[in-house]
Amino acid sequence: MLGEFEYLLLTAAARLGDDAYGAAIRQEIEKATGRRCSIGALYTTLDRLEQKGFVKTWMGESTPQRGGRAKRMIKVTGKGVREAQAFYSAVSKVTRGVSWESA
Amino acid sequence: MTRVWNRLARRIALLLEPAERDAVLGDIAESGATGFQGFRDVAGLAARRQLALWKHFRPWLALVAVAIPAGFLMGLASRWLASGYNLYSWILWNYRDLDPSLLAESHMSLDHGIWGVARASLTLLAWSWSSGYIIGYLSRFATWLTGTVFCTFFLLAPVSYALHERSAGASALIVAGVALAASLFGMHVGRRPSLTALMQVTFWVASILTALTVYNGFWWPPWRGMHAVLLVLSAFLPAALSINGIWALGRAAAKRQGWIKQPPR
Asked: Does residue B126 carry a pLDDT above 80?
């Protein structure tokens, strides 16, 4: 079963598709949660997800706005998609009928 | 101030793997984080990575089995070697006024002394390099911490000697400095994962020289009894690693030749 932050990261990566990399995912998570996302939490969670086979990462191209440094690109695997679906379904089921469901 | 934080962030980022360092510093540059925010992000990730390293046994092994005992013993060895340098430089300086037969009687003849000091210096250098290599090899990215502990223990004896014996202690500090430089170089090389021929040779040289020095007694009076056992054990740790490396290389070669069959999956 995924953790909350793992789910957020997987969802952000899936939403960004081919443009999923560290800084973009971080921005996406901060926008969705309204909270600061630390790079330490992001990269250690990313490693964990990769070890579990839920994402695949590789070093991408560099851009001038990054000071010529490469991006760590991220792609959600089929196993990752199934795991995220299972998490979402569990959260939906457990939330049904609870007072804050419609809030 | 921002420049200082940026510089600190780049320094701390050296603790990360090169690819990750690139990605993280790039992310920070892209997000436009101010100096302190960038530093906090890099420091946070580096701290997490360092903590994760200590979940494995390797850095602990490097710290407990090598950095502390070898550092302490080599600090003592530097101090005793410096005493040898002081003694024989004094003999050389005053050689005209000394009776050679008296020196020979007291086992302090010049040829014996110079050979002994040279052998002990080589032993210390080879041993420092080997210990540094093992620390780097076992600790990898935690080397900065295990290495700092090693250097601290290494310097204990020479510094305390220098504080008590100002004139004679200076030579102990010089000997320790040279030996420490060899250790630091060993750590740097040890962080690369392959076992090189140079490393194998140095390990064996360290072990053989140490065994010779201990066996002959030489002029390190404390190298008797328990001290000698500890020294031999510490020096043969590199030899054990070396044998392990040769064994692994031999097995890999035998597999390539088909002499060892792969077990069915």
From this structure: no
Q: What is the mean predicted confidence (pLDDT) over B64-82? A: 86
Cα–Cα distance measured from residue B253 to residue B261, given in angstroms and rounded to the nearest whole number: 12
Low-confidence ranges of chain A (pLDDT < 50): none
The DSSP symbol for B264 reads P
SS3 assignment, position B69: helix
Q: Quick one: tokens of A64?
A: 């001038």
Domains along chain A with CATH numbers: 4-91 (1.10.10.10)
Full-model pTM: 0.67
The ipTM estimated for the assembled molecules is 0.86
Integer Cα distance of A56 and A53 in angstroms: 7
Instruction: State the CB neighbour count (10 A cutoff) for residue B40.
Output: 17
* Residue B265 placed within a domain: no
Q: Is B253 on the interface with A (CB under 8 A)?
A: no
Distances in whole angstroms, Cα of residue B111 to Cα of each of B88, B93, B108, B118? 10, 15, 9, 11
Give me the residues of A, 14-73, that contact B with CB < 8 A: 21-23, 26-27, 38-41, 43-44, 59, 62-63, 65-67, 69-72
User: Is B22 in Cβ contact with A70 (below 8 Å)?
Assistant: yes
